[in-house]
Amino acid sequence: MVDTANGDVVASGRAGHEVTGTGGARETDPRIWWQALGQAMSATGMGADVTALSIGGQQHGLVVLDSADEPLRPAMLWNDVRSAPQALELTEQWGAGAWAERIGIVPVASFTISKWLWLTQNEPEIAQSASRVLLPHDYMNFRLTGNAATDRGDASGTGWWSSATEGYSSEALDLVGLDPALLPEIVSPGDRAGVVTDQASEIIGVPAGTPVAGGTGDNMGAALGLGLQPGRPVVSLGTSGTIYAVSESRIVDPSGVVAGFATADRGFLPLAATLNCTLAVDRFAAWLGLDREQVADVTDVVVLPYLDGERTPNLPEAAGSVHGLRHTTRPEEILLAAYQGAAASLLEAMTAISTAGSGISPDAPLVLIGGGARGAVWQRVMAGLSQRALVVPDLDEPVAMGAAIQAASMLTGKSGSDIAEGWSTMRGPTVEPGEPRGEVLDRIKSIREKIT
Question: What is the mean pLDDT of residues 240-245?
């Protein structure tokens, strides 16, 4: 809950959700998100004071509803990698270069189009029964307003929305046998998805008729929340890792490493993601019986922390591995190597984004957000390996702040960047570049090349 006059957070609420699945599956019943919103809103005690709202939700998830608008199955989440064979099949149909040029992204297991093709091949009766095909934030918009609506930012991560034409691609939809009538309408930047219905009002406690903005994907929401300007790279250290920058021009990367997403306004958001970040490092800490901050000063060990497969580099079938162990190796050295392995993937991705023409300034500080951003070891490793200064915004929830800025923009007509600047959302401490560690990146790359 944000005061539109100054951006101060006046209340917040949280509620848990459940992720299930093994063997590459990651799923959640989307009704849990709706229940969680009601619980979180109730916890604020201020639902009746809301004048506008917006949803920032995880990208790429596949939600399929039946004719009664009930979920046909749990949502397949972005980090569900079962559709890796379908992603390869789709890429081979057109070729990576054609996908990048026509759509803006090259299919990988994370993207919605790969998941839909998996569904048609593995659960055809479910696919044939679908009356709506939505993203997570689209589903929440639908429950709030009764209108199935999405935005260009989140739609740009589906694989069937084209950044070249700014609309759904009939070619891509035909390729996977998806009727465009099942998809949500795309709300233009600044427009409404609808208003809170009477039924939704009873659940979440927000007045009926309250306008709901178009919403967006989580990374687009964070860019809004930070008021991100072109040339500044952002690294998000969460369960997964992402790195992105705002670009004024459309980005095309035939390699598929860089996804040419769109922002929630009218720009573009070249992004690369890793599947293994803070969760993988914390798993190593647990295995070793260490606190996550208990690391050595240096290490010769190399950890490739691909516990969930990996997206950057694109190795969906990979597993984690540890190299260079000796009798004298201490657990703290292995944990430091886990941090370095996760960070190396993100920095490799940043190089790819720069090469793709995103306009990242070579001396721009790295903006660090996400659950790991305030961790002392994460800061030390990122500053040392990147050789950039770090800015760590005080903002606790940049995605939620981005949603609030979008809602405020809809109400006031001001641009999101002007609102973010007025609210000083980028304010936070700076960390100076650390001691150069170029040999660490070389060692990690060498080991990976040998085993792949």
Answer: 92
pLDDT of residue 357: 81
Distances (CA, A) of 434 to 202, 307, 386, 388, 390: 52, 28, 9, 8, 10
Rounded to an integer, what is the distance from CA 199 to the centroid of its chain?
30
Residue 170 sits in a domain whose CATH number is 3.30.420.40
Statement to judge: residues 255 and 161 lie in one domain? no
Q: Does residue 362 fall inside a structural domain?
A: yes
Spatial CB neighbours of 437, under 8 Å, sequence gap ≥ 6: 340, 384, 385
Distance CA(95)–CA(103), nearest Å, equals: 12
Read off the pLDDT of residues 299-346 as tens digits, 9 standing for 90 and up.
999 999 999 888 788 787 889 999 999 999 999 999 999 999 999 999
Domain total of the chain: 2
CA dihedral 232, 421, 218, 368 (to 10 degrees): 40
Identify the domain containing residue 399 by its residue range.
220-451
Predicted structure pTM score: 0.89
- pLDDT category of residue 356 using cuts at 50, 70 and 90: confident
Residues 180 and 225 in one domain: no
Query: Does 200 lie in the same domain as 327?
Result: no
Give the residue numbers marked as catalytic: 218
**Do 83 and 145 belong to one domain?**
yes
Q: What is the pLDDT of residues 170-204, one digit of tens each?
A: 999 999 999 999 999 999 999 999 999 999 999 99
Same domain, 244 and 301: yes
